[in-house]
Amino acid sequence: MLREIQEVLRLIMLLGEQKQQHSLKTRRGLLVLLWTETGASVQSLNCTVAAAGRWSTGIKMEALQPVLTDLKESMFPCAWPSPQPDPEELCAFTDLYGSLRLLLSFQKKDERFNSTELCARIEAFLHTFSLANAKINVHLKFKWNQQTFQRDLRVKIKRTVALANQLSRFLDVTCSSQPPECVKKDCWCQGGHPVVGGLLPLSIPPKVMDQGLFGELSIQPVTLLRPCLLQYPNLATQLTHIKVLVFGPSNVPVAGPSTFFQNLPAHLDCQELGLHGLHCSSFKDHVHNSGMVYTVEQEPSKDPEQESSLLPMQQSLRLYLFLQHSDPFNCHLSDLMATEVLIEHYLEDILNNNRQSVTKALQTELKNTLKASNHRKRSQEELRSAADVILSSSISVVSCSSDVDFRTACLNSMKVRDTHELSASLHESLRRVTSWKFTPRDRCYSAQMEEHPESDDATQREI
Amino acid sequence: MMGPCEAELFSEIDKLRAELLNNVEVVPGCQRVEEEITYREILSRIENVILGIVTSLSKDEAPVLALPNRSSWANISFDSAIGLQRNSGSSSTSIRSDSPSSVRKFAQILKIFLVIYKLVQSNSYATKRDIYYNNTQLFGSQQTVDSIVDDVSCMLKAPRRSLHVMATSKGLIAGDLCYLEEDGTRIDCRSGSAVRSTNNPKLTAPAVAVSSNIVGIRNIVSSAKFVMIVEKDATFQRLLDDDFCAKLSPCIIITVLMVRKLWDTLHIPIFALVDADPHGIEIMCIYKYGSVAMSFEAHNLTVPSVMWLGLLPSDLQRLRVPEDALIPLTKRDENKLSSLLTRPYLTSQPDWQKEMELMQQTKIKAEIQSLAAIAPDFLTNIYLPNKLRYGGWI
């Protein structure tokens, strides 16, 4: 079923590309309804995918219908015409976004599946889809065995990134991590700042060409480090995870893990990146997260008893990989769909054929991203070693002084009783004020700033 | 008693001295009351800085030090009697403890504060060199220590000598001069109690290494008619080799330091013998008027009565110094010369200005040693005696 949903999304996205909307304020809704039916001897899983709002304006549904029929027959040979969804569900959807632009329903009979696992996979897939299609509000509803799972994916903070070949992507840059307690109000960036990497051409292996894939294929990385700590230039950071998400030319996520990415850490130069090591997370996480996750090996803390506000801030890196394809002989929708299927099917072979260049490109992107982090480490070291001198010199003067008034003023100022306590107190205070130095930046997202008028957070309701 | 030839030799110098004594407010050295800052005041000023740091941290604010800007001409004014001096309310630079680019300097300044605090408290002294070698990793270079000591001196509004930090002396002095050092050692620059210059082990005339503790020098006795500041050690030694001090006796020749002390005590003409190049001229200007960096201590360092004896750019033409002894100005020389010509004190020195403009036109410089191309002993036997006899200074 996930594959079918992916195909439908691909179709919708390819249709949408024909009348591309560049404004972040365009409201688009996508509804994925799933429900089960249990017959006399067989269980069926029904699915309806609907799109409403400012989608592919100018294309008439009547003209599209024959195309959809052909595609259904070719894409879903095992799918049966599905009963229509509950009109009330559709009404609620159209009330939000306006008239339906597309409605596609299909059914799979005798579907043996684990409802909970399927639901999690579909949700994860749609969530990943939403990360690179932030303009689209995705609504998922899954009903089975008198249970209903509902998830509304609306992006709080979006950012447009300009890729090569005049393509744009609308990314979800929201960061939901809570700031530490020592951070003042409105002094925390709630979003991230994507960085676009260079476009890397990919050569298509002969075996794949034989299957019909021609034209120019390329891949372009975009990195997003979260949470954003640009406003705290002195804060030490620690990268904990790297998540790799691959998107096809239609900007639909490429589902499932790939051996290429599983083996990638072994080919990266961790020393050059300033990392101790990278490890692939478990297969189970891949299934649910629709992306490859690497865990960064950490060096043991030099000061295990260090106060929590002085520990390095943990960050995670999201690495988007956008595949692009162009072939002047591919202009029909069905051709485009078939090409996408080919690319996804042979992605492993394509990446292996370009292993060196892809690995090098990823190494470069990671290195650029981690440059700032490594610079922070050096700054921290500079601040730390200087702080030792500043504090020891200051304490020495206080200790050596015979001026009672001066000594008393120093102790009272820090509310301590003796120079020993004064030393500890000054040490902690200096470390805190220097580490948490705040430098406001216009490009950061304070609590009041949002790019889109819709302010609803992602919601999740289980009934 | 001086013979008629000797009297004639010094007649112009004696006239100059009379003129200087008329123009300058004379305070006999023994009666000079210097505004000395007490050691308690120094400690208190340092404690105020530390208290400021503690107070900032108590408010969860990053401590900041305000460092007076010693490199901007905007903070300087010129007084012909004093030289370049720092204006009150001049601009300062903030040295932050929360910026990686400045925190190291912050720490270096604090370290110097601590060193000075302990020196003053214990009434002991250290040279800038000592301070550097005790903390090479923190400071990185001697130049850093030198600069920060001057910064601290300016911040605390106290002369370096009050901070118990001494310069590392490399200066030499010779001639008609006796004095007592702080520890009671009697120094006679005329005779045997001398330190031989390490650059010339065959030194025939004595020269004394100038003590770093100039403040402590007392009981200066001299019948010298003039003091000559010699820019380079090589020239100084040449003069010693040629027995200059005996030929032009009584006089004092000196390479560095103590000039102000000698003027305050003896009030005799001070002549500068520097290379005919922009660098030498700048050295001389610093002696006479001070520098931007040290303007906060102009009262104690500058000697506005310094006269330029040689080597003048016009001397090169007049004496027809051989061309192969002349050197073209570099781009850097030209830039420095242009900068010197914009200095505020030049307007009161039209003769100096004329000489510099001549150098600018001819684009030629020369070292004092170039006179040896005329004759090996030209400097000592012809050039300097004639200059001194006939008032060839400006």
Termini separation of chain A comes to 23 Å
State the shape of chain B.
globular
Give, in spatial order, the strands making up the sheet with the most strands of chain A: 3-4-2-1-5-6-16
Contiguous helical run count of chain B: 16
Q: Could you give a short account of the major beta sheet of chain B?
A: 6 strands, mixed
**Class by alpha and beta content of chain A:** alpha+beta
CATH topology of the domain at 33-166 in chain B: Arc Repressor Mutant, subunit A
Low-confidence stretches of chain B: 26-35, 192-200
- Give the strand content of chain A: 15-25%
What's the helix count of chain A?
13
SS-derived structural category of chain B: alpha/beta
Which chains share the greatest interface? Answer: A-B, 32 and 32 residues
Largest sheet of chain A: 7 strands, mixed
* Estimated helix fraction of chain A: 25-40%
Low-confidence stretches of chain A: 284-288, 448-463
CATH class of the domain at 33-166 in chain B: Mainly Alpha
Oligomeric state of this protein:
heterodimer
Domain Topoisomerase 6 subunit A/Spo11 TOPRIM (chain B): 226-388
Domain Spo11/DNA topoisomerase VI subunit A N-terminal (chain B): 104-165
Enzyme class (chain B): isomerase
EC number (chain B): 5.6.2.2
Written overview of the protein:
- Chain B: Keywords: DNA-binding, Isomerase, Magnesium, Metal-binding, Nucleotide-binding, Nucleus, Topoisomerase.
- Chain B: Its cofactor is Mg(2+).
- Chain B: GO terms for molecular function: ATP binding; DNA binding; DNA topoisomerase type II (double strand cut, ATP-hydrolyzing) activity; metal ion binding.
- Chain B: It is an enzyme of class 5 (isomerase).
- Chain B: It catalyses: ATP-dependent breakage, passage and rejoining of double-stranded DNA.
- The complex is a heterodimer of chains A (463) and B (394).
- With 463 residues, chain A is α+β, with helices and mostly antiparallel strands.
- Chain A contains 13 helices and 16 strands.
- Chain A has a seven-stranded mixed beta sheet.
- In chain A, strand 5 and strand 6 form a beta hairpin.
- The C terminus of chain A is likely disordered.
- About 5% of the residues of chain B have low confidence.
- With 394 residues, chain B is of the alpha/beta class.
- Chain B has 16 helices and 17 strands.
- Among the domains of chain B are: 134 residues, Arc Repressor Mutant, subunit A (Orthogonal Bundle), CATH 1.10.10; 126 residues, Dna Topoisomerase Vi A Subunit, Chain: A, domain 2 (3-Layer(aba) Sandwich), CATH 3.40.1360.
- In chain B, a hairpin with a 5-residue loop joins strand 8 and strand 9.
- The interface between A and B is medium-sized, with 32 and 32 residues.
